[in-house]
Amino acid sequence: ARSGERGRVAVGREVALTAREREVARLLRAGKSYRQIGLALSIAENTVRTYVQRIYSKLGIDNRYAVPRV
User: Most buried residue, 12, 29, 57, 67, by most Cβ within 10 Å?
Assistant: First the structure.
């Protein structure tokens, strides 16, 4: 389901991830390292870390194994 903001998709009840966060989450769930995710998306490894922190915060999780399919 889409939320009111463009490019965001609701995950669960109130949580919305941006398109880029969904890309990072998909690769994270696939077992890719931060470096591999950065190379795949042409972003810096530290940027990947920032996205992962945002994803974890939004979803209320603390590890990659808890990332749902998005």
Answer: 67
